[in-house]
Amino acid sequence: MDIKNIPRYIKKSIKRFPVVSSMLSVGKLKSRKIKNRMPRAVCVVGSDKRSRRWIKNNRSALKSINALCMVVNVKSKDHFQSIKSLAPNVDFQALNGDVFYKELKIKHYPFLLNKGYIRQ
């Protein structure tokens, strides 16, 4: 799947858990410009402590840019709901995120894709 198809892909939100993205893991990445621009800001997180802290620290910004947060590694629906509760005014979807590695060679999350840039 091409990264440009993410908006259509998110309509296929996963209803079964766990959600496992085998090509992505929690970690650090360098901010950089990317070729593909998303039609909407997208953040990618997991259910780990680092992702939860990142969501809490960035929830106001995520809301202000109308970001869609993709939860790419999460054990259960209860864990997913607890992540959503960290930023109740932000849209969340549970999805496999391996497309980010395949298309952009991104290995680690949490991150934000916005206006042609990726950053943590």
UniProtKB/TrEMBL annotation:
One Pfam family of this chain: DUF2859
Domain of life: Bacteria
Protein name: Uncharacterized protein
Native source species: Bathymodiolus azoricus thioautotrophic gill symbiont
